[in-house]
Structure of tRNA pseudouridine synthase A:
Amino acid sequence: MKNYKIIVQYDGSKYKGWQKLKDSDLSIQGKIETVLSKMSGEEIQVIGCGRTDAGTHAENYVANFHTNSRMSPKLILNHLYEFLPQDIVVRSVEEVDERFHAQHNAKAKTYVYSITKGKFRNVFNRKYSFHSEEKLDLVQMKNAAEYLIGTHDFQSFTSLKEGSKSTIRTINSLDIIENGMVIEIIINGNDFLLHMARLVVGALLEVGKNKIKAIDVQKILNEKKRTEAVPMAQPKGLCLRDVKYSF
């Protein structure tokens, strides 16, 4: 049996996220498994590098699957391109060591949250960025970001029920970059909890709008409890950019 690693790019606008759901066929995992299973004549389980929220996107999502099929990586790639929906593209297929596991071997992930600013809206980025007419205080947002870098208990920045699993995670870097009419919040961490990236962005946006102070982000983090002071950022602005492995 062969183990294949795939890199997936998708527009998640109409999907419920990566993970296959019992009550819906609108998942990225489900769409890919359906195509691969029909291709190979066997039931294929695709292992993803982690969950992604409904409505979010990915540039380089990593997954793997095992199969007895003798089709070459190139033929598998072409088959996926032909039969997957147009908003899901498998960018590469390669045979890897049988021990490779897309989730367990992941060491770091990078998410990017895109914000367009100003009065004018653009139809071509409407599905992929959050639009803000308010002027954001980027200096204070960067000050707030400093409190989140490092290893912390992120219970205040997840929708997980308290005690369901460890909420200690490490944010390696958190950069806020302005380029013309676009602001990118780039978060690199060892792993992300349910809704963690969107809640971190939500807190930074509240600081940028002067609704809370930068120091309040540290207080919220230390409280280890979800609060209404941190709204969840809209999903459409969030994209998984990269996943790193040491395997």
